[in-house]
Specification:
The complex is a heterodimer of chains A (259) and B (239). Chain A has 10 helices and 9 strands. Chain A is an alpha/beta fold. In chain A, strands 5-6-7-3-8-9 form a 6-stranded mixed β-sheet, sandwiched between helices. A 3-stranded antiparallel β-sheet of chain A has the order 2-1-4, covered by helices on one side. In chain A, helix 4 crosses helix 5, helix 5 packs across helix 6 and helix 9 crosses helix 10. The longest helix of chain A has 18 residues. The radius of gyration of chain A is 19 Å and the shape is globular. Chain A starts with a helix and ends with a helix. The model of chain A has no long low-confidence stretch (mean pLDDT 90). Chain B has one domain. The model of chain B has no long low-confidence stretch (mean pLDDT 86). In chain B, helix 1 packs antiparallel against helix 2, helix 5 packs antiparallel against helix 6 and helix 5 packs antiparallel against helix 8. Chain B contains 9 helices and no strands. Classes of the chains: A alpha/beta (259), B mainly alpha (239). The structure holds adenosine-5'-diphosphate (ADP) and magnesium ion. Adenosine-5'-diphosphate (ADP) sits at the interface of chains A and B.
Chain lengths: 259, 239
């Protein structure tokens, strides 16, 4: 009996879905940005959402975060209902994107302190020191955000997103303004985070190479619909091509031909 | 900057006007004192509203709103944090204005008595209510609505009977002023000056109206917040 329970527990852990979306739809008037999509994010996996501009990637992410109200569909995060357990969910996940920034007049460290308080982080000092070193921000920790480059701000924002050791990390084009070296390091860091802490990551990006290397599974979104999903190599096989980039171009061009 | 510059300008201008007036008629010092007192009191309402709205605008300008709203912070907690910040700013700017009035015109607002404190607190709360309404509108309509942040308090000024008693207003306007907390505060202030006793009735009116204003303001903000989430424009606010 106990053995069975343990076994069930392990199985559950392996295939536990930390995010489940069913029939998720968002229409802005006539335009439907996301149309009836189903997907799940499993514990300890990196799921990439890719697709051309306007495919509905950001809208999907904002619905998961409760920033945008879905027109219809169901979302479960960590087994909880976002409408009822908003605060609990938000305390256990985090978000970063290249289009958010941080209060300009506060320094890097002050900003991290403010958010550490918001997330009720224990051992604030140690956690911040750890993240400052992880993102190579030590030399600029006392500089106000206003004086930083966009790449530096992106790194601070990523550090912010790891403050609460989130179980789920939602990243909307986080590497858009990073130089290749830092982008590469960030990628490694996220990969490590997943392996070490079992963090689940939902990731969007335009950079096909990055997606191919980083993600365990992909969702290919176009005009608000999932047109392919699975392992990167399966998607490549399905559409025929050398790599993801070719597949992406193929799909995008087919679109244009139809228009 | 905002804390010192405007109060100073206001005070200088009114101080000079009153000084000028006093050269005409010797019997006016009481009136001048009243003008400066009213000015400081009005400034409390105005700064309370501004402090709150500017804090929100700063979060918006620095594209920080998303970070806040994806954190476990609830909307009510966010509003409360704006209120706290507005109080802190207010302590500085009003303290500064009171000190200046005292230095420049030897005017001590506390001569009006301790009764001034509960009255002033009502102005702070009314400033909050107006500030929360303003931020709700800016949240929803974005950049174009920003002018409201600067002007909306002045909409209430003529109905607040700051510099003149309610009696001199036309009957219709008098009816309106009954439902404006600040009008009761300024009437109350005149009552204190002329009788030296606490204007219980005006005070109760102001408190009750303020509670209603504050509740309506928060409901209005939440309603706008919901609408913004539906429109999916929380990420675009400020762009
Ligand atoms: N708040 C909004 N109001 C109206 N249309 C929107 C809004 N947000 C996104 N859209 C539209 O929905 C579609 C998907 O946008 P988005 O999710 O941002 O795509 P992506 O992130 O994949 O580039 C686009 O056609 C976009 O113009
Ligand atoms: Mg996007």
């Amino acid at each position: 009996m106990t053995r069975n329970n343990t076994k069930n527990k392990i199985i559950k852990m392996i295939i536990e879905n930390v995010i489940e979306a069913r029939g998720l739809t968002k229409c802005f008037g006539q335009v439907c940005a996301v149309q009836n999509i189903d997907f799940e994010l499993r514990r300890g996996e990196i799921l990439g959402i890719l697709g051309p501009n306007g495919a509905g990637k950001t809208t999907t992410m904002h619905m998961l975060l409760g920033l945008t109200t879905p027109s219809s569909g169901e979302i479960k995060i960590l087994g909880l209902d976002p409408d009822k357990d908003r605060e609990e969910i938000l305390g256990r996940i985090n978000f970063s994107s290249s289009y958010v920034s941080l209060p300009y007049s506060l320094t890097v460290r002050e900003n991290l302190l403010v958010f550490a308080r918001l997330y009720s982080v224990k051992n604030k000092k140690e956690k911040i020191a750890e993240l400052l070193s992880l993102f190579q921000l030590e030399s600029i920790k006392n500089i106000p955000i206003r004086k930083l480059s966009s790449g530096q701000i992106t790194r601070v924002s990523l550090a912010k997103a790891l403050l609460n050791d989130p179980e789920i990390l939602l990243l909307d084009e986080p590497t858009a303004s990073l130089d290749p070296d830092i982008a590469d390091k960030t990628k490694k860091l996220l990969s490590d985070k997943k392996d070490r802490d079992g963090t689940s990551i939902l990731y969007t990006s335009h950079n096909m190479k990055e997606m191919e290397e980083l993600c365990d599974r992909l969702l290919f979104l176009d005009h608000g619909r999932i047109i392919a999903s699975g392992l990167p190599e399966d998607i490549i096989k399905k559409f025929g091509g050398e790599n993801l980039e070719e597949v992406f171009l193929k799909i995008a061009r087919k679109e244009q031909a139809q228009v | 900057m905002e804390i010192f510059y405007w109060p100073l300008l206001d005070l200088l201008m009114w101080g000079f006007i009153s000084t000028y007036l006093s050269t005409f008629q010797g019997a006016l010092p009481k009136f001048i004192g009243f003008i400066i007192g009213a000015l400081i009191m009005w400034d409390i309402l105005f700064r309370s509203q501004q402090g709150l709205t500017i804090s929100f605008l700063e979060d918006m300008w620095s594209r920080n709103l998303l970070n806040l709203f994806v954190s476990p912070l609830s909307v009510l907690e966010y509003i409360c944090s704006l209120l706290v910040v507005s109080i802190i700013k207010l302590v500085f700017s009003s303290g500064m204005m009171i000190a200046l009035a005292w230095l420049l015109y030897s005017y001590n607002i506390f001569e009006l008595g301790i009764y001034i404190v509960p009255l002033a607190m009502n102005l702070i709360v009314m400033g909050w209510a107006i500030g929360i309404i303003t931020t709700g509108i800016i949240l929803r309509y974005g950049q174009e609505a920003e002018v409201l942040a600067w002007g909306i308090a002045f909409l209430f000024q003529p109905f607040s009977a700051v510099f003149y008693p309610v009696d001199i207003l036309p009957p219709l306007v008098q009816t309106i002023t009954r439902f404006i907390p600040s009008a009761h505060v300024f009437e109350g202030m005149r009552y204190v000056i002329s009788t030296g006793t606490f204007p219980v009735e005006h005070f109760i009116w102001a408190v009750v109206l303020n509670i209603i204003y504050l509740i309506l303001a928060i409901m209005f903000f939440c309603w706008n917040f919901k609408a913004v989430k539906k429109k999916g424009i929380l990420a675009n606010v400020g762009e």
